[in-house]
Amino acid sequence: MTSDEADALRIRLTATQSQRLRELGADPLVLDELFSDAAERDAAFKRMENELVRSGRERLRELRKGRRAPQLVELERTLSDALTDAGFVRVVTPLIIASDSLRKMGVEHGHPLREQVFWLEDGRCLRPMLAPNLYTLLRRLDRHWTKPFGIFEIGPCFRRDSKGASHLNEFTMLNLVELGRPTEEGRVRLGELASLVMRTAGVTHYELEVTHSEVYGEMVDVLVDGAEVCSAGLGPHPLDGNWGIVDPWVGLGFGLERLIMAREGYPNIERAGRSLSYVDGVRLNL
Ligand code: ATP
Ligand code: MG
């Protein structure tokens, strides 16, 4: 009998068992394990379930002792410290923005992102991105500060993204932008800043890919195992005129939950985001 034939006789976890282990945060690889009979399978399931429940409880105990903050908060803090050390200035801007600022970003009727906006009354909406606010601040701070200078914001963004394993309706964006370095340094600087963020987030394997975006034209994406964690762009850009920006810039937008997913190997973003089912990545129905 070949090993393939032998495997064909072996059995897998039941759908309910797989689902339970996935929720508890099992490594996706263990879900593919094969067993010679139901008794062996059920015993292995019980062992894995007990171990995951134990480590989940341990994590919750640590959290209760106040030894650390949830992953999302920790990541926000370490990124904020690293960028501040690198000379960037943190800013905090409104979550509610005017529809006009989306228009100035080129997000108009017919634009795919337009369909994902949570609208409020009076032509205002929950921000789907940080770029419009940062464009405004760059222009206003340019009157006070000598260039080059950099600013960043870390905070919630909202999109009616089709629910999937890597999209949340509310997620946390880090957007950093540096104004006023010579254009010819842009690409290298973009790589340096991507590397700083990825290193700080604890994600060592990633690649850069040049793509085309509706909003920014030519863009560079940062991918981890093929999954996008960041989109970055370079100015001068056609939209700059809408914002009164004339100098070159480099800007990068990262999703913090995507970075946590990549670092922790989570198959589902829900575990990394704002949630009532998970606390600090631990499923509560342990
Ligand atoms: P995707 O193609 O994966 O939907 P995007 O290209 O529309 O993402 P961008 O506008 O480039 O997203 O936003 C910058 C970053 O914000 C993304 O690289 C991603 O890390 C994060 N992000 C965007 N939308 C979501 C979402 N719905 N949930 C979680 N993170 C998101
Ligand atoms: Mg993108």
What is the arithmetic mean of pLDDT? 93
Strand order of the largest sheet: 1-4-5-9-8-7-6
Looking at the structure, what is the overall shape?
elongated
How many runs of DSSP E, i.e. beta strands? 11
- CATH hierarchy class name of the largest domain: Alpha Beta
Number of domains: 2
Ions, cofactors and other bound molecules:
adenosine-5'-triphosphate, magnesium ion
**Could you give me the name of the CATH homologous superfamily of the largest domain?**
Bira Bifunctional Protein, Domain 2
- Report how far the terminal alpha carbons are from each other: 41 Å
Task: Provide a concise account of the structure shown.
The protein is of the alpha+beta class and 286 residues long. The chain has eight helices and eleven strands.
Can you describe this structure?
With 286 residues, the chain is of the alpha+beta class. The chain folds into two domains: 3-68, Helix Hairpins; 71-272, BirA Bifunctional Protein, domain 2, CATH 3.30.930.10. It is 35% helix and 22% strand. It is built from eight helices and eleven strands. It has helices spanning 3-9, 15-23, 38-64, 71-85, 99-104, 131-142, 186-201, 256-264, and strands at 89-90, 96-98, 124-126, 149-158, 170-179, 207-213, 217-224, 227-235, 249-255, 278-279, 282-283. Strand 10 and strand 11 form a beta hairpin. Helix 4 packs across helix 7 (186-201). The protein is elongated, with a radius of gyration of 22 Å. Bound molecules: adenosine-5'-triphosphate and magnesium ion. Residues 221, 228, 231 line the site of magnesium ion (MG).
